[in-house]
Structures are given as structure tokens and as C-alpha cells.
Amino acid sequence: MISRRALLSGAVAAAAAGTLAACGKKESPSSSSSGGTKQITLGFSQVGSESGWRSANTSSVKDAAAAAGINLKFSDAQQKQENQIQAIRDYIAQKVDVISFSPVVSSGWDTVLKEAQAAKIPVILTDRQVDSSQDLWVSLVGSDFEIEGERAAHLLEKVLQGATGAVNIAVLEGTTGSAPATQRAAGFKKVMDASHPDWKIVASQTGDFTRDGGKQVMAAFLTSHPEINVLFAHNDDMALGAIQSIQAAGKKPGTDIKIVSIDGVHDGFVAMAAGQINAIAECNPLLGPQLMDAVKKVLAGQTLEKWIKTQEADFVAADAAAALPNRKY
Ligand code: GYE
């Protein structure tokens, strides 16, 4: 896992990696010996199709590649690390110009990243982080998940304003071992530890970022912990699944159980406008344009920022109806 401090100190390594990647190529893909332009090929390994966020991210990558004139080789790993490793190996064998992937979990990438480095193919991470050495990848295009966890906790403060009594929180965690699950949990806990010794996490388990996972885990939570009156879901899809179980248990989502989630997908906003989700910390999936820009820059030998972040906002239920028509995903 990379900390923000480690990333800052990695700026020099980033410059080195960028230069190395660019120098390593036999021929720059952006200009051929005949003076014409050779099309860039990007190999992209997506996590899967587990959530609304992921669908929006996939469309963004595909649309941005088409708009940038980049030849995109795309594969869906169905939430399995071994499929991603295989896809990256295939891209290396095909001698693509750049490899990008959104790592399903943070650990276990050293070997394949070293293989890409040996083949002199630069790797740009998108969305999620790896815990491999920073000289094995050029740049990360994605969000700060720890901050998102902190933002979710601050949104809960707003939602609970004026309320009295015990705060019994259930947490639906994202995919175990993934950067967003680990860091969102850490950010949320940081705010709890600093300011809310009275908040209690009474149940916490993974729902694998899926609607069905959220539904099933929440149903079990409600049986074993009827005292739950707050849900923090690491993404909207799990919150949406949980809403079904809360209703099935005869409780009112957003009222009997306050709900805060992360992402800000269309269906999350619809549930928020209906008062079923109380607040959402946005996580922007529209990373395609920034990724294509990074791909072009690295091949042109330019130095990239080690961490290219995105703009994100916070929303409470009262804002949802007005914001809904302007949502892009
Ligand atoms: O929050 C979730 C998706 O990695 C930020 O993955 C992403 C997360 C997103 O499945 O909905």
C-alpha cells in the first residue's frame, strides 16, 4: 500500500521510470521513421463488472481511447487476480506500447510487473493501487481512498447532527485486500478514533463491492445485530443491495438505519433523492481521458506525476434531486 508521503518521495523515481520507459522503446510509437504517425496500442486489464462504478469506468476508458485514436486491447478479469496476471502477460507477448490495469487486490504483482519492466513496456495503474515497489510502475491515475473514508465519516457527522443515543454502525466492506476497501476503512476509522469515541462498529464484513453481496451480508447483520442504526457501505451498489434487506426486515432505510456510501453512481443518487441513502462521498470513475493523456505523455518521454488525482464532491440527500439530472454516470 502506498502512503501519500511515500508517493511524494517517489516523484524522482517517477521521473526516472518515465524516462526509462520512453528510452527503452526501439521506435517511438508516436512517430515512425517515414515521418508518419504510428498508432499507439494500449493493453488494459479491467477488474471486472462488479458495480455501476466499474461500468462507468469501462465506458470512460473505451470512449477516451477511441477519442484519442489509441488502439485499445481490453480484457475483463472477473475480479480474479490470476486473470489479470494472464492478461498482462498476453499484452507483454503482444508487445503493446503501454499496459494499464486496475489491480483487483494490492499485493502479489511484483513478478508480472518485473516482466513488463524487462520487456520495457511502461505500466500505468488506474483506479487502485499496488504495494509493489514504485519503480515498477510509472504513474497512478485514481482517487485517494483514505480521504474518501474520512469524507464518508464527516458526512455521517452531518447526517447524525442533532440525533441522540447510541450509534451502532454496520460496515459493508469492499473486496478484501483491495486498495479501496483497506483505505476507506482506515480513513473512516481515523475520524472515528479522533472525534467519535461513542461511535461503535458492531459488524463489518465484505460484500465484495456487489449489490448481491451487500444484500446478503446486510440480511445476516440484521439478524445478528438488530441494534444497527447506521450503515457505512464502501460503495453504492452494496448500499443498494442492503436497502432491499433492510426493507425485508421491516425497517426504513435512511430513517431507521442511516446510510452513507461512496461512489455517486446514478442508482445511488436515485436512492438518495428518495431519502433511502442519506449521503454519498463521490468517487469519480471517469478516468479515461486522464489515462489516455498519461499514455501519450509517457511514450513522448515526458515526466508524469506519480499520482494523478480526480475531482470529487460530497452530497447529502437534500442535494440529490437537484444534482441528479447533471450526473454523468
Ligand atoms: O468504489 C467500487 C468498485 O476501485 C474505486 O471499485 C473502485 C471501487 C468502487 O467496484 O464501486
Describe it.
The chain is an alpha/beta fold and 329 residues long. It has 2 domains: 4-142 and 286-309, Response regulator (Rossmann fold, 3-Layer(aba) Sandwich), CATH 3.40.50.2300; 145-283, Rossmann fold, CATH 3.40.50.2300. 44% of the residues lie in helices and 17% in strands. It has helices spanning 4-9, 11-24, 52-68, 81-93, 110-118, 145-160, 179-195, 211-224, 236-248, 266-273, 288-299, 317-323; strands at residues 41-46, 71-76, 98-101, 123-126, 139-141, 167-173, 199-206, 230-233, 258-263, 279-282, 307-308, 314-316. The protein has a 6-stranded parallel beta sheet with strand order 2-1-3-4-5-11, sandwiched between helices. The protein has a 6-stranded mixed beta sheet with strand order 7-6-8-9-10-12, sandwiched between helices. Helix 5 (110-118) links the parallel strand 3 and strand 4. The chain is elongated. The chain starts with a helix and ends in a 6-residue tail after the last helix. It binds beta-D-fucofuranose. Beta-D-fucofuranose binds at residues 50-51, 53-54, 127-128, 180, 209, 235, 237, 262-263, 283.
Can I get a quick summary?
By secondary structure, the protein is α/β, with parallel strands linked by helices. The chain has helices spanning 4-9, 11-24, 52-68, 81-93, 110-118, 145-160, 179-195, 211-224, 236-248, 266-273, 288-299, 317-323, and strands spanning 41-46, 71-76, 98-101, 123-126, 139-141, 167-173, 199-206, 230-233, 258-263, 279-282, 307-308, 314-316.
